[in-house]
Amino acid sequence: MAAKRSSTETRKPRRTVSSPQSAQQRNGEQPLSLQRIVATAVDLLDAEGVDGLTMRRLADRLGAGAMSLYWHVENKEKVFDLALDAALQHRAPPQAALALDWREDVVRQLEDWRVCMLRHPWSASLLPRRALGPNILGRLELLSATLSRAGVADADLNVAIWSLWNYVIGATVTRANFDRSDDDQAAAQKRVTGLNERYPTIERSRLLLDSDWDGTFRKGLDFLIGGLATEGK
Amino acid sequence: MAAKRSSTETRKPRRTVSSPQSAQQRNGEQPLSLQRIVATAVDLLDAEGVDGLTMRRLADRLGAGAMSLYWHVENKEKVFDLALDAALQHRAPPQAALALDWREDVVRQLEDWRVCMLRHPWSASLLPRRALGPNILGRLELLSATLSRAGVADADLNVAIWSLWNYVIGATVTRANFDRSDDDQAAAQKRVTGLNERYPTIERSRLLLDSDWDGTFRKGLDFLIGGLATEGK
DNA sequence: ACCTGAACACCGTTCAAGT
DNA sequence: ACCTGAACACCGTTCAAGT
User: What pTM value is reported for the model?
Assistant: First the structure.
């Protein structure tokens, strides 16, 4: 997407006089703000992936000079932190919705989490490496509270939360990167298929081949929760 | 580490005559080879992290001209693929070692996998995004075979493998990135502590605070395997 | 067959300067 | 207070050329 930038003709920098569109007027754009920067960063990441986010490109999308961002934001790193937490937007569900079996509650929360990350495929691989923003902490708190209410002792909570976290992160990061480019997927499958004689069990399991990602995610999660339920208290 | 590069004096490119050390002689170095490139890339990644790997820097370490690598390797991407699989070096254990309880076998394999990745902290976050090389496939095959031998039906193998994979990846990628820089860790903990009143359950679980990573990994893994064992056949 | 430097089109960030 | 361009020290990769 994102119309190919017209080979920037910076030949004559005499914009002062007849510059056809100043930053402000170009869509009746608001002035720069942290909010606008973060929202645009998320869009850019959605459209172009992690490598596509560039301070210059981001500023361009905002109709701002290349260096203007640095007044609002410390770093490119900081932009990643903020975009990540924004992508994981989370509002706690109404109390009423929590009346079900706790297992079902946990599954719902984690499926929501996963869907959210899959909508922003760059987010999964960023999450474990970056600061934990309020949205992420909010999700963790809700998960913890659900487990605690279900009877998991405080001493076991740490393990339980991390196990579920690990599972969701691993599943989502893998999934997000496997179906991103069909080229890669085709190549990976071909490679797997090509080497099958050396990996007979992998072949029998049809690993990577018919991928009911959603069902697999759910089933594995059930196993994990089952383990937590029988031993976890 | 890595002695600061002496501000490259490329002023006078008349190396032809008295260049004091040609590429070949500079440690009695062998000529370039894919093997040497990959090994050096792993070293560089270990020392400087993902962002520290640069084609130019890599060539420098090899005592080669900046562009020489491109004869042996297609891409920087390819270097990552090769370095990753090299870091996950795997030789199947002797059959005799597999006589134990299958649960114990699985735990051992996954702990070895994890330790291996923790030795090269950049590898965990790379693994889910890159091609599956022979070492990775070898590990997956061994895991599959162990599960299969334990009685997991072919139809359930896919879920079982992915669940374990997800858990190991998630756990390792998180761990590798949390204790990498003490600054970040301190900051993360401070942030968590600072926001505690809003996240009471997280506080009670002491999430992130006293981190017995190894024990937590093991316990969560036991839960997952327990779940697989009771429902997985 | 193997290696090389110059060159191109990019990066993130500093800084002194504009309004 | 907010925004800017020029400049610096880097990138990955192409290409025409050397041995």
Answer: 0.85
